[in-house]
């Protein structure tokens, strides 16, 4: 069932759980996520970056993902992840996405507000939900100073102003996660999350969640995280299996026997995340 991101996240916000948002770049990744959602009876976000769009093509991704979403009983939001340009967001509105992220987090606050507001106006006119981001992702070193933290992480007062002026549907915040693999052990700024969530009382998004410990994730969900982005852990599940198969058999060339098992490995990883996030059984 293809639904908007807001429908899924309003339910998660009210019922205090988080929905997994998984990046896909090909059919096998997509099928793995859908099969996991069906097996777990969980709502899910399928998301594509601008990088995925230029790799696979907007037509292929949008037709394939919409087909998958419409042909399953679980709620699926079709989401643009880290849209950097107004134009990309508009193309997604025309091509069937039901949720778009506009990421103006690298701009000064006023510019981020202006860009996000423009996307919200257009998207809401089309019945599409919007995610925006405030603060910088990067990861937190053990010896990071309070001043450095304040410079990078989401400022609660700015978050309030940002949401009031943009009317965005859900907000991604920076509390210590980073995209990709971590060098050390990430520690999240749970106190900051707590303050922001209590003030905003709306769905909050956590990026860069691959590699974050289960306890940190569970705590963050208890404090109000409702959408959790996972990419790296799925890339690793896929390529680990491909490496294993190619390593065990130097003669193999039937693609289906290589990426078929990779698809199963990704599905298992997605199901593990859905259970951890408390999304299983919530469809
Ligand atoms: O938003 N994301 C996914 C980012 C994917 C980047 O993809 P491109 O290479 O196409 O730009 C996340 O927050 C996931 O972070 P994670 O730590 O799980 O990779
Ligand atoms: Zn991200
Ligand atoms: Ca990460």
Describe the structure.
By secondary structure, this protein is an alpha/beta fold. The chain has one domain (2-277): Aldolase class I (TIM Barrel). Helices cover 52% and strands 15% of the residues. It contains twelve helices and nine strands. It has helices at 5-15, 27-40, 50-56, 58-70, 86-94, 109-125, 146-152, 156-166, 190-200, 214-222, 232-248, 256-277; strands spanning 2-3, 19-23, 44-48, 76-83, 99-102, 129-134, 170-173, 204-206, 225-230. An eight-stranded parallel beta barrel has the order 2-3-4-5-6-7-8-9, surrounded by ten helices. Helix 11 packs antiparallel against helix 12 (256-277). Bound molecules: ligand TD4, zinc ion (ZN) and calcium ion. The site of calcium ion has 8 residues, from loops. Zinc ion is lined by residues 82, 179, 207-208, 229.
In short, what is this structure?
With 283 residues, this protein is of the alpha/beta class. It contains twelve helices and nine strands. Residues 82, 179, 207-208, 229 line the site of zinc ion.
* Alpha carbon gyration radius: 18 Å
Number of domains: 1
Identify the quaternary structure here: single chain
The major sheet is characterized as: 8 strands, parallel, barrel
CATH class: Alpha Beta
What is the CATH H-level superfamily?
A: Aldolase class I
End-to-end separation: 10 Å
What is the level-2 CATH architecture name? Alpha-Beta Barrel
Catalogue the ligands.
Answer: ligand TD4, zinc ion, calcium ion
Shape: globular
Number of strands: 9
Return residue spans where pLDDT drops below 50 for at least 5 consecutive residues: none
Number of helices: 12
Question: What fold name stands as the CATH topology?
Answer: TIM Barrel
Physical arrangement of strands within the biggest beta sheet: 2-3-4-5-6-7-8-9
Class based on secondary structure composition and strand pairing: alpha/beta
Mean pLDDT: 96
What is the helix/strand order?
Answer: EHEHEHHEHEHEHHEHEHEHH
